[in-house]
Write a structure and sequence with these properties.
By secondary structure, the chain is mainly α. It is built from 2 helices and 2 strands. A hairpin with a 2-residue loop joins strand 1 and strand 2. It is flat and about 45 Å long.
Length: 71
């Protein structure tokens, strides 16, 4: 895949009492959302290592597509 835009940027950064929290990266957030959708769709046999790899691949594909639009 091509270089991804902001893949390591925080998805939902916030400040609380002067402390910055970065939380999940955009890549982690997108992968989690993709994994949730895959599991909700009754993924065959729920081979979890495969589900995780597929979710990350989907997140990377989304980030790559978003990077194209940003150029």
């Amino acid at each position: 895949l091509t270089a991804m835009l902001n893949e390591h940027e925080p998805a939902f950064p916030f400040m609380w009492e002067g402390v910055i929290s970065y939380g999940l990266t955009k890549r982690e957030w997108f992968a989690g959302m993709a994994m949730q959708g895959i599991l909700a769709a009754e993924y065959p046999e729920h081979i979890y290592a495969s589900v995780a790899a597929d979710a990350v691949a989907n997140a990377d594909a989304l980030l790559a597509e978003l990077a194209k639009d940003a150029k």
